Amino acid sequence: MSAMPSREIRLRSRPEGMPAPGNFELGESQVAEPGPGQMRIRNIWMTVDPYMRGRMVDRRSYVPPFQIGQPLDGGAVGEVVDSRVEGFAPGDYVVGPSGGWREVHLTDGRGFRKVDPAIAPLQTFLGTLGMPGLTAYVGLTRIGEAKAGETVFVTAASGAVGTVACQIARNRGCRVVGSAGSDEKTAWLLEEARIDAAINYRKTGDLQAAMAQACPKGIDVYFENVGGAHLRAALNLANPFGRLVMCGMIEQYNEAVPPPGPDNLILVIGKSLRMQGFIVSNHGDMAEDFLREMAGWIAEGRMTWQETVVEGLERAPEAFLGLFTGANTGKMLVRVGPDRS
């Protein structure tokens, strides 16, 4: 088999503040046949995630920045076209942390694993059964140490990580409260995710009061995806020895100048709170337990999910930008090619 053409999305320029369509460009390349120890993958689904905004800045971080003029990458599920990697054969469906934002790519297979569409639809391995799901699992169980009977508050509760965090906490016997940005999203959280209370933070005039009303016994575990006013209110409502799981702060990702921190941070001391940030890639040892427990919950009907699907690789920038305007409920996904699973 000869080289294969592949369209790809490249970073045209580094955004300042909120990214715009002009920061991206659509290009095409030729993907060569695999050499020894390589395989070629046709992407079917790709993910866009808030953390990718940080990779558009040229700075040292836990993951290398995207380069100008080069294709972006990220999680993708695809089908092996041809392979010279032991353990992978043509027709296998695989998921990996790189390879997204293009139609076809060449890889040595590191970080990729086979997935079974009989367990769940392929795209689920980019959301509920993928990195966002594992992030929620690590945050709730290892970092937050959530226990039955405790109150767990999840911000951005209708997002890819938030929806899973809410349901893991519920399945472990916690009282779960979440915040989201529309009545439709809070309704889904109450009716489908079956959490105990949900707040539309865009409509409440007083976020602090709304959170206090929803959490009459205070907050034991706070799962942070947003930052800002949510964090300030959570510090006020945190119970002694509460745990603040610092997963993300999407409210600040596009700020040209970082805003000041909460003015009540001193409460961490008096309440003996534990505030811990984490990166899911440092907790790969939990992946096996995560997949086993999640598969059981799915089989029992105790785990559900919602997806926002954008069709076509050329619309990947549109999908990414939608993350920062609340355009998604659940996982934001881009269908790159036909799914024959």
| Backbone shape | globular
CA-to-CA gap between the ends?
23 Å
Structural class: alpha/beta
Strand content: 25-35%
CA radius of gyration is 20 Å
Helical run tally = 8
* Spans of at least 5 consecutive residues with low confidence: none
Provide mean pLDDT, rounded: 95
- The count of strands amounts to 15
What is the H/E order?
A: EEEEEEEHEHEHEHEHEHEHEHE
Quick one: biggest sheet?
A: 7 strands, mixed
User: What is the share of helical residues?
Assistant: 10-25%
Describe the structure.
The chain has 341 residues and is an alpha/beta fold. The chain has helices at residues 131-143, 160-171, 183-191, 207-214, 229-237, 267-270, 287-299, 316-322, and strands spanning 4-11, 24-31, 39-47, 76-83, 93-96, 104-107, 113-114, 151-154, 175-180, 197-200, 219-224, 238-246, 274-277, 307-311, 331-335. The chain is globular. The model has no long low-confidence stretch (mean pLDDT 95).
Structure in a nutshell:
The chain has helices at 131-143, 160-171, 183-191, 207-214, 229-237, 267-270, 287-299, 316-322, and strands spanning 4-11, 24-31, 39-47, 76-83, 93-96, 104-107, 113-114, 151-154, 175-180, 197-200, 219-224, 238-246, 274-277, 307-311, 331-335. The protein is globular. The chain has 341 residues and is of the alpha/beta class.
